[in-house]
Amino acid sequence: MMDQLPALQVMLPMTMAPLIVLIRNPKWSWLLATLATGAACLVSCLLLMQVIDGSVIRYAIGGWEAPTGIEFYIDRANAGVALLVTGVSFVTLIYAYHSIQHGIDSSRHYLFYTGWLLCTTGLIGMVITGDAFNVFVFLEISSLSTYMLVAFGSDRRALVASFRYLVIGSIGASFILLGIGFLYAATGTLNMVDLAMRIPTTESPRAVLVAFSFLTVGVMIKAAVFPLHGWLLSAYHHAPIAVTAFLAGTATKVSLYILVRMFFSVFGEAYSFEQLFLNWVLLPAAIAGFLTMSLVAIYQTDLRRMLAYSSVAQIGYIIAGISLATQQGLTAAVVHMFNHGMVKAALFMAVGCILYRVGHTHIPSLQRLISRMPFTVTAFIIAGLGLIGVPLTVGFVSKFSLIQALMERGWWAAAVLILVSSVMATAYVGRVIYLLLFRESRSETAGMTGVNEAPLLMLAPLYALLALSVYFGVFGSQTLRLAAGAAQTLLGGYQ
Amino acid sequence: MKIYPRQHHRVLQVITRLMVPFVLMFGLYVQFHGDYGPGGGFQAGVIFASAFILYGLIFGLHRTRKVLPPSTLRWLVSFGVLLYAGTGLLTMLLGGNLLDYDVLASNPLSGQHWGIFAVELGVGITVTSVMISLFYGFASKR
């Protein structure tokens, strides 16, 4: 059974999704969905342990060996991402039980969980597949279910946000499909290992260049890299908060993984960075991204929107790490993908607890919330410190390694700008923490009577995720070693 | 979309009554002859659903709903996916890889035959019911 694990990871949530539609009971749907994602999480743990020494698992679907058939390709670079996806999905799904009671009619809960499972299926599939077209198929599965999940938001604006995401996301998906089409025309294969072998010797380098451009722009739209991030803000703001926590931890990270896989493994570092000077596109976008988005975040009055802007800024850090194209830079990028995924999911979960009890996330009216919801506010503060990058938190581990990598390459200005952006992060997170702890004026605390602590089923997953992030903050060398292995695998290309 | 359940579309009604069985038959042909000729679950599903949509356009939504209630459709949509996924899981239980049909029967050739049959049937059922659900969704005025 051990050699069936790669397929099982995708099939568990995928089989459970239609079963839930048949059952239709809200409680049972939640239970089954949680069990399926929990089992998938366990499977990805086992897979990560198998490949952590640098070995590769290749699983031929239907018994057709690659490059004839479709394969799942699992190595150090993507086993960790798969674990992040299943882990965050599992934790936020437990959390979702209470948090979706508001705003979603209980007769439609089963649809919510079905969408959630399909989204998880798509994201895992995108990560572990070794076939370029299969990436697109799984991308569509995850995107379509994401549009549905976003539209579940209690606010009517969620529909507009979902539609906007649908339009922009479909443009991104079509770009990706066009890119894959050009690659197929130029090389005659869709298997990623095979593509990596055939691209350097192709007879039509122009088609490869077109494919590269389409794929880069398409995946960057999906990953919400700075100038292409328009869909993310309203989608994160208006989606049900459990969905936002889930997406913030997984969806953009998966797209970033696809980006990295494409640049380094499929096209190769020499092609992307030495021949095409990709870092001259990526680094300015990254710097402009984290500077402007951090600045805009300071002026937000809504907690969810502030965190959404902060997400785009954090993606900027990851892109900066990728643009270095060195072992250190890629390590920093990969480790920040994990750390930020955990921290941002935890932050949105804490905000969800506030939303659940208080009913809104308007920052100025949340004064001295700590007297009402001590555990939630403590959780928000711990996660917030992780977002800023205070020593002994995960944010510090990844930002420190990123700045180190930039200095090693001699890009001092970029390193200084990251520090500037961190100061801005201190400003926007610190302002909220100050307001949650202290009272500024007496007038604006009306409507807080009767507000008490969030239910245990929401706090427990939140604190589990926090404990994990604190652990990886204190013992940062563990994730760094894992990320260094991933970076080494990516830079080395396919064997 | 305006649906006309009126008597003065007699010609259309008679023609539709004549057409529907043939469309259904052709759908089934594309579905089950897909192993040997052009066809398959997706195309067959669309053709099969078009018979119901034609019937709905001519005789009205409420009569089509009597034939195929939305609750049945929802059941069928997920049943098709389950049939597909179930075939995949079955091949894994029998010791093959995911969707490796060789293990489904005593010899690989008939195993492949049955595997494709089940998977394409799942696709056909899901596509048919999704198409009709879409039609219901757009045509109902709720």
Which structural class do the helices and strands of chain A define? mainly alpha
Topology as H/E string of chain B?
Answer: HHHHH
General form of chain B: elongated
What's the β-strand tally of chain B?
A: 0
Helix content of chain A: over 70%
Number of separate strands of chain A = 2
The domain count of chain B comes to: 1
Shape of chain A: globular
Unreliable segments of chain A (pLDDT under 50, ≥5 consecutive)? none
Description:
The complex is a heterodimer of chains A (495) and B (142). Chain A is mostly helical. Chain A has a domain at 277-495. Chain A is built from 19 helices and two strands. Chain A has helices at residues 5-23, 26-51, 76-99, 109-128, 132-151, 157-187, 192-198, 205-223, 230-238, 241-266, 269-275, 279-298, 303-324, 327-358, 374-388, 394-409, 412-437, 456-474, 476-492; strands spanning 57-60, 71-74. Chain A has a two-stranded antiparallel ribbon. In chain A, helix 9 (230-238) runs antiparallel to helix 10 (241-266). The longest helix of chain A has 32 residues, at 327-358. Chain A is globular and about 70 Å long. With 142 residues, chain B is mainly alpha-helical. Helices cover 74% and strands 0% of the residues of chain B. Chain B contains five helices and no strands. Chain B has helices spanning 10-32, 41-59, 61-67, 70-93, 108-139. The longest helix of chain B is centred in the last third of the chain and has 32 residues, at 108-139. Chain B is elongated, with a radius of gyration of 18 Å. Chain B starts with 9 loop residues before the first helix and ends with a helix.
